[in-house]
Amino acid sequence: MNFSQKPKEKNFTANRNEPEPRTNGMMSNIKFAAFARFAVYFFLLSNVQIFAQENHLASFSDPARLWGNGIERVIEEAYRQYFKTRIIGDRVMNVRIPFAMNNERDLLLESGWRIHGDGKGNPDMLWPIIDRILDSADFAEYINALSSGNEKVIIFDIKDRKWTVTAERFIIARIKAGSYTGLPHRPFVLTSGKGALESDVFNYLFCVGHVGIDCSGFVWQILAYIGRRGGIDLGKTLSQALGAPPGADPARYAGTSFYNSRNPQVISINDEIRNLRPADVLLFRDFDGTIVHSAIIQSIDWEGGVIRYLQCNSVAPPQERGVHEAFIHFNPANTAVSLKDPSLHWTKKRFGAFPGEEVPFIDDGERYRYRLNGGGRVIRIRALIPVTESLNINTR
Known about the structure:
The protein is α+β, with helices and mostly antiparallel strands. It has helices at residues 7-13, 22-61, 64-67, 71-80, 123-134, 137-146, 169-176, 198-209, 215-229, 234-242, 256-259, 364-369, 385-393, and strands at residues 83-88, 91-96, 152-157, 162-166, 188-191, 266-269, 281-285, 291-301, 306-313, 322-329, 345-346, 377-381. The chain has 2 domains: 83-209, no CATH class; 215-393, no CATH class.
């Protein structure tokens, strides 16, 4: 086609008072209408896909998908409140509420140290504190130090809530050789310089933030959540049994000593597997026979032979310190065995709270089987029995 020819140009410009052919306008309207229909269709299709994805994600994240609508689901709902996804140092992390207990590491200090909420806080109380800490300038500087690309040691000062860095080769070499140089109130942590891990977040929250929940506080909050789902205020119901003064928060008095007490609200359960139920509390002894740790059963798979229990401590694998799950494997054909039976396989290994620190017992099973003063035990809270039974009946 010769674009230098003028006839077509003349058709459009020779008489400017003449109206343009109507066919062009009609075609434009038809094209616009078609485009509009396509846009609307595309918009609706996109939103249907988005809604479908959101519904799929909601369905996937719904505890009922795995646990039904009974007591197991309620416990799982409570458990998931202790986790939050955040981006830290360009990494997506599943941050968990850490373990922390008043005066836990004050052996070499003249005065003790206290945790926010005394280690008995609930997620609604603790997450705003944790978020403020993770959004702080000091935490950002800490993450930068972990991302410098160079190997170094972070030295925490728990008492003064500070951290310092050293790249001294002698200290690094000693730690690598297994000669730990830290102290209970002054942990040393060797880092690669390749960025922060979940374990590094725990270290900061524990040592600098002084925030977390202890084992009995965690169990209490799960039990209290179960109560609320059944219309029971467990704090008010058990306030007197806990020995809480009028007006005081009952959670502050819910320690392992209460779970191990002779109070009528605490029912001792024969720990043969066939007797166990979700919401039962596992109690563990220390070397002196004192009950010092508690956990809660979330589910029992009678066909698969798996007990899932939840707990909060700092002697788990580094990336799981804080609130975490653990499992006991048993023979489904023989449920008349005690949790102390050596044939059971407890999956949770025990590690030092910080690399290099020693810890008694190799796993939770060895700790539960420790027989001084009878070994571990299982208890049930009487006030919650109607709630757990009602939740399970309503799902049948």
